[in-house]
Design brief:
With 251 residues, this protein is α+β, with helices and mostly antiparallel strands. 35% of the residues lie in helices and 29% in strands. The protein contains 7 helices and 8 strands; from the N terminus they run αβαββααβαβαββαβ. An 8-stranded antiparallel beta barrel has the order 1-3-2-8-5-7-6-4, surrounded by 5 helices.
Length: 251
Amino acid sequence: MKLRLGRLALAKSKDAKTSDPYLFVSIRTPRKTFRRLEQLAFDLIPRFGEAGLHLLISGWHEDGENIRIINLWKLDSANSLVTAELRLVDDPEYLELDGLLAEEDKQIVISVTDVSLVGEVDSAVARRAKEAAAARRLKKVAPPSAEGDRYVYVVVTNHVDTSDLAEFRARYEARGDAFRNATGWLGGDGFLGLTGQDDIVYQVWRVPEQRVTSVADLLTRTPWDDVSDENATFEILQPSAFDQLMPLPRI
């Protein structure tokens, strides 16, 4: 994959944190194979972790006869993707999962804003482990969250020219908290694509499920909206069963 070094240098200019590599993956699988893909993912995610790929979020939505899934991974290094694929190349479950994919796109991205997701995922995983241990001791199952507590992912695609990246980041950092307080949204971490289309900045938001009807309108009112070359597009995703931050129960 060819990295765009000019954008990488600009994105890294603020501080060392922005150089951390991530992997943004979008896949499609036929509806009839979605549940099998979920089953395989539960087994494979720990093996990916051992190779340096750590799943942060995963969400899905219906797309005609297919299911579209977006995954965001934290990489130990830029080589982690190759390491993982080489390690699993002969794994029967990995090969089966690969055969279920109708389409797959992988992009190396780096953070261009402060990233809250990694710490939030670590806390969520630790909390679930503690709750599961307590439930085993008491031989009980923890009650599901109330309907009003449910969030969905909104993954936004911004088109930001290289010369406007610094302005995009400055506005987000100066007014992102005010936007979150006004909307009730959470997150908003921004990730710059280093492969694939060269003007993409993804943002990952968590939006209360009851407020999704206002997403399109609110995205035209962000403090950084006029920095984009064109209107932002977005996808609303239900958390996957194997999502690490707010997974839905397995079916």
